[in-house]
Amino acid sequence: MDNVETNRMKIRTLLLSSPDGVVAHPYGETTPLLRSILEPKTELVVDLDLERVKSEGGLADFQALVLHGQYPPDDAAERALEAFVESGRGLVIVHIASSSFQGSPRFRRLAGRVWEYGDNDHGRFTSNHPPVGAFQVDIADPIHPITVGMRPFVVVQDERYQDLLVAPDVTCHDLATATLDGRTEPIAWVVLPPRGGRVFHITLGHNRATYTNSAFIDFIHQGLDWAAAAGAAAPPSRHTH
């Protein structure tokens, strides 16, 4: 098969990230690394803002969207993402992108669980994580198309999220977990929105070390394949954490 045919078969994906220097996440390092993971699998376009998302027809040519950046509340963008997924296409959410739109109800329904910054001074619900470090990731569902063939693996320098804000009336099908200090938390899951589309959400991805981890790369590749797959596969037996 020649290169022209190979390229034609690739799905078209939009990677949404953030400029370097935004908050406490090294986008200058992680965005190029994530791009290098995605480019062999897809025809990739990279944006560092939401203008394309909000423009009329801006997402029409994409089969999948990878959300890697952090964005403030934006009703037009949130509606566009929701419509994109509900049209039968795929969304992949990586790491702190789960805090985008400050956990708005619309985005929370897509993501299943979101990072909520909260307000410790006033007792408001606040997501958090133990210190950055090494931990083992265990496979909760070894037969899902994203995790088939995967084994437990160790990340050497990442954040294990906990106390995420869970969307009501949304079923998260957990794919992987991590246990620290006797506490087990979901690391990766999928959501099948009732109106259509597929969402794969993975909380790993804080810095360079994870993006060179072969198991993480497999998660991104297989998560993108699953999210963007045409047609509905037989749904997994669902469970919640």
Question: What is this structure, in a nutshell?
Answer:
The protein is an alpha/beta fold and 241 residues long. The protein is 25% helix and 25% strand.
Q: How would you characterize the overall build of this protein?
A:
The chain is of the alpha/beta class. It has a single domain (3-128, 162-175, 187-228), classed as Class I glutamine amidotransferase (GATase) domain (Rossmann fold, 3-Layer(aba) Sandwich), CATH 3.40.50. The chain contains seven helices and eleven strands. It has helices at 3-9, 27-38, 51-54, 75-86, 105-111, 208-211, 214-228; strands spanning 11-16, 42-47, 64-67, 90-94, 113-114, 133-139, 153-158, 165-166, 172-180, 183-191, 198-202. The strands form two sheets. The protein has a nine-stranded mixed sheet, sandwiched between helices. A two-stranded antiparallel ribbon has the order 5-8. Mean pLDDT is 88; it is low at 1-8 and 230-241.
- Main beta sheet: strand number and arrangement? 9 strands, mixed
Spatial shape: globular
Would you state the CATH class? Alpha Beta
Q: Can you name the CATH architecture?
A: 3-Layer(aba) Sandwich
Biggest sheet: strand arrangement? 2-1-3-4-11-10-9-6-7
What's the CATH H-level homologous superfamily?
Answer: Class I glutamine amidotransferase (GATase) domain
Structure class: alpha/beta
Measured between the Cα atoms of the first and last residue, the distance is: 44 Å
* Low-confidence runs: 1-8, 230-241
- In DSSP terms, counting alpha (H) and pi (I) runs of 4 or more, how many helices? 7
Provide the helix percentage.
25-40%
Q: How many discrete domains?
A: 1
Tell me the strand percentage band: 25-35%
pLDDT average, as an integer?
88
Order of helices and strands: HEHEHEHEHEEEEEEEHH
Radius of gyration: 17 Å
